[in-house]
Amino acid sequence: MFRVTDRDEKTKARRGLLSTAHGDVETPLFMPVATQATVKAMRPEQVRDLGFEMVLSNAYHLWLRPGVEVVEAGGGLHSFMGWDGAILTDSGGYQVLSLGKDVKIAPEGARFRSHLDGASVFLTPELSIEIQGRLGADIAMTLDECLPYTAERDAVEASLRLTRDWAERCRESHRSGAQVLFGIIQGGMFADLRRWSAELTVQLDFAGYGIGGLSVGEPRSLTLELLEATLEHVPRDTPRYLMGVGDLAGIAEAVALGVDMFDSALPTRIARNGSAMVGTGRLNLKNARFATDGGPLDAECACYACRNFSCSYIHHLVMTKEILGFHLLTVHNLSKVSALVSELRTAISSGGVEELLRGLRLVDGAE
Amino acid sequence: MFRVTDRDEKTKARRGLLSTAHGDVETPLFMPVATQATVKAMRPEQVRDLGFEMVLSNAYHLWLRPGVEVVEAGGGLHSFMGWDGAILTDSGGYQVLSLGKDVKIAPEGARFRSHLDGASVFLTPELSIEIQGRLGADIAMTLDECLPYTAERDAVEASLRLTRDWAERCRESHRSGAQVLFGIIQGGMFADLRRWSAELTVQLDFAGYGIGGLSVGEPRSLTLELLEATLEHVPRDTPRYLMGVGDLAGIAEAVALGVDMFDSALPTRIARNGSAMVGTGRLNLKNARFATDGGPLDAECACYACRNFSCSYIHHLVMTKEILGFHLLTVHNLSKVSALVSELRTAISSGGVEELLRGLRLVDGAE
C-alpha cells in the first residue's frame, strides 16, 4: 500500500504514494486534525482545497461523543463529516492519558472516567480496533501507552512491554479489509529503548509505523537524535508517521530523516489563540502593533486570508473574538503547512531538500 | 436614488431598485448584520453568494473598537471588511441605550460609559454623522432615542421631540456626497404618536425612512397596526426600512404593507444558539432527537448545509461547540431569509403576495 517514488540524494528524505480506500495520497503529507469529526473552523472542501488529502480524527472523542453507533448510522466517518479524502484515526491511547480522569492502566486495558461526564469507561486494544473499524477509518492505529517525557527508564521499559502486548492484541483483532493498521513505536527519551520498541513493533509486521512520544517538551536536538535512532530500525519500504509534530521546522527536519507522515493540532490551535505562522515563527495578532498594520499576515503567502484581508482587520476580528478571525488564521496556518509539504515533495524529486532546510532556518526568528 | 419597479395588485407590496455608491440593490431586501464589520461566522463572499447585496454595520461598535481612524486607514469599511456590496450603518442610538452604562440623555447628546472599558463617552448627532461618514457607509441613519416598549405616552412624546431635533442636526451636519441619510420614525406603541413622528421626520425630507421601536416585545397584531399607521404618512416613492425585523413571517407581512428594507441579527444569532429556521418556526438542534436524524435541516432547502450535512452531524457539532456547526446554521438561516425575500420580489411582480403569505402561515407551528 506504500511505494517510494523518489529519494533525495543528500538526505534520507523520500517521496511516495500511499494507497488508501479513499484514494492514493502523496507523501510526505500532513494531516490536519479533525478531533470532533471537523477540522476546527473549516469546511471540509476548504481543507481539500488547501491541498490536504488525509485528516486525522480521534477514536477516543468520537467514541464518547456522539458515539460510534451515531457515526455508523451516518454512513461512517467520511460520510458523517462530509470528507471524501482519507482518514487516519488514532487509537485513543494518547487521549486516555491526557484527558481521562482516574486513569488506571492494567494489562487488560485502560480504565478511566470520561472527561465529559465522569462516566467510568474501559478501553481495551480490542475495543479500540472495533471503534476504529466501525468509524471506517482508512488507517487505524494500535492502542499504546504514552508516558510523559520525564518518565524514568524502568517505567518506560515496563510500558513498552505493555504497548507491545496491546499492539499484538490489536493486530489479532483487526479484521483485514479496506482498513490498514499501523503500529506505534514508543521508548521515551532512551535511544536504546526506542530501538528495542522499534524491533518489537516491526516484528509484528504492520502496514506502517507511528513514532509516538516525541516532541513532548524535550530539546529539538534530542528529538532528532531519537527519531534518527528509531528510523534505522523501521523497514525502508513502509510509511513512517511522526505523531503530533506540526511546526514547519520540525516537519522539514523530520522529512530529511525519512519521515513520511505528520499530524498536529498546532496550526489550527494556535490560529484560535490569534497566532499566525510566518517563516518558522509566529505572529501574535492580539499584539497592538497590528491594529493599524494594513499589510497581509505574510507577504510571501497567497492564501485566501493573505490575499483579501489586512493584519489590522484580523487583529480587530481576534480582539472581538469573531469567528471569521479564527477561520482566517486557520486557513493561513494550514496553507503554510501545506505549502511547505508541497515544497518538500518537489525538493525531494529535485534533490534540493538540504537547500530548502537552509532557507527555512534563514527566515527563523520571527516574533 | 429609489425607484419602484413593480407593485403587487392586492397588497401594498412593491418591488424597487435602490441606487447606492456600491451598486444598485433590489428591494425588498434584507441586510445581514455585521456588527463588528463581519457577518458572524461568514466569509464576505459567502454572504454575497447567498444573494445579499447590502449589510448593516454598527457605528457604535466600530467607533469604540477598532476606532473610526483604524477603519479609515484601512480604506473605509468596505475595504476593511472585504465587502464590495452596499453598507448601511446604524447611528448608535439603539446601542447606546441597550449596551451603554450610566446613560444620560440630554438635548446636546448621549453621555454614557462604554460597555467595553467603562470609559466615559459622549455621542452627539453631529458625531454620529461624522463617524458614519468616515466609515464610508452608503446609507447613514440619524441618531434617535429608542425607548422600551413599556414607555408611557408622556415619555414617548418628550423623546420624539428630542429625536426630531437630533434628526434635524444630523441632516444639517451631513455632507452631501455618495452617502445618503435616512431619518428614523419612532412613537412607541401609540398610533397617533407614530403618525406625528412620521410627519415630523418627513418634513425634514430624508432620502429614506427607518421605522424603529417596533417588534420589541409587543404582540404581532399591534406591530402590524402601528406599522400600517406609520407607513400611511411616509411618501410612497421613498424607501421604507423596518429596523430589527428578521423573522420570516414578520418580513413577509411587513412587505405586504409596503416595507422595502429589513435588518436583524436574529437569523445569525439564533444560529449560534443552535437553532435552524424551518418553515416560519425553528428547530433547536441541541435537542437529543436530532442525534440520530440522518436527514437535512430542511428538506425544502438547497443551501450548502442542507445539501451536504445531516441533522445528526450538525447536532454533534453544536453539542461540541464546533465553529462549523455555527457556520452551517448561519448559512442555512440566511439562506431561508434570502429565499423568502427573493420569492417576495417574484410574487410582487406576478401579483402573488397574498398567496405567498397564506403558504407561509400554513407551514407555521414548527417546533
Structure report:
- Two copies of one chain form a homodimer.
- In chain A, strand 7 (101-105) and strand 8 (110-113) form a beta hairpin.
- Chain A has 367 residues and is α/β, with parallel strands linked by helices.
- The first copy, chain A, has helices spanning 44-49, 59-64, 68-73, 77-81, 93-99, 125-135, 153-173, 191-203, 220-231, 248-256, 266-272, 304-308, 311-319, 323-350, 353-362; strands at 2-7, 14-20, 23-27, 29-34, 54-58, 86-90, 101-105, 110-113, 120-123, 139-141, 180-185, 208-211, 240-242, 261-264, 275-278, 281-284.
- Chain A binds chain B through residues 36-38, 40-43, 65-66, 70, 73-74, 80-82, 291-292, 294, 308-310, 312-313, 315-317, 319-320, 322-324, 326-327, and chain B through 36-38, 40-43, 65-66, 70, 73-74, 80-82, 291-292, 294, 308-310, 312-313, 315-317, 319-320, 322-324, 326-327.
Assembly type: homodimer
Strand order of the largest sheet of chain A: 4-5-6-10-11-12-13-14
Biggest interface in this structure?
A-B, 33 and 33 residues
Structural class assignment of chain A: alpha/beta
Task: State Rg of chain A.
Answer: 20 Å
The helix content of chain A is: 40-55%
Low-confidence stretches of chain A: 362-367
Let me know the number of strands of chain A. 16
Tell me the major beta sheet of chain A.
8 strands, parallel, barrel
* N- to C-terminal distance of chain A: 42 Å
Give the overall form of chain A: globular
Count every helix of chain A, treating DSSP H or I runs of 4 or more residues as helices: 15
Beta-strand residue fraction of chain A: 15-25%
Nearest-integer average pLDDT of chain A: 95
